[in-house]
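It is worth pausing here to work through a concrete case rather than discussing structure prediction in the abstract. The textbook approach is simple: state the sequence, then state the predicted structure, then interpret. We follow exactly that order.
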Amino acid sequence: MNKIVSKEYFSEHVVKLEVEAPLIARARKAGHFVIVKVGKKGERIPLTIAGSDLQKGTITLVIQAVGNSSKKICSLNEGDEITDLVGPLGQATHIEKVGTVVCAGGGVGVAPLMPIVEAFHNAGNRVIVVLAARTKELVILEEQMRANSDEVIIMTDDGSYGTKGLVTDGIEQVIKREKVDLCVTIGPAIMMKFVSALTKKHDIPTVASLNTIMVDGTGMCGACRITVGGKTKFVCVDGPEFNAHEVDFDEMLMRLSAYKGIE
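Step two, the predicted structure:
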């Protein structure tokens, strides 16, 4: 079991947990994820590793309480234990110096974007972060993003903070004023679909980190399968990051809606 050493609320339904996992903390890289389970009969949930502390031997997870299982994890407190935690899983983000990188995150997708922003910044890139949320209270990790990037643009649906508009409006603002060499996007599938459509129009290479349904996380169950470039891929072992312009987002959205009634 893995003990929770600290808990912090980003908003009413978004929680940050720092969990003891020294082996994972040492091995993880930007883009990796873990699968967690609470209780012997709990559901297996994939969560991207938002950060790690090698000295403390901990990893950071950010969870949004949506369904029963995520609510159960969010209800845990400091000193409680996660029954099972497996990782790091998936393929790490390919980091290199490419020039100007726009990192666009929406909602709780901002958390897994954090280590990617840091890695691209440390590699010598100009990093511009676009954070999007419905309202000011749902904007997370702004301070940490500012410390690891050259600029942060904030977009809110209601205009309560930053600029009123969608994440695509923020990205387009950057595209109009300077050359963008790469875009990385993490967030709701519909958001990533429209980010991909925008960057494809401007011929900007784009990476999307996909949040499909997963069960085992090792490619055995096939629940996370998607179509990329006309071929079947498994997000848990081939991803979670893919060339966004080759992802069949419509198929992905249809598969994600399969359990909406149960949730």
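Step three, interpretation. The mean pLDDT is 90. The first helix runs from residue 22 to 27.
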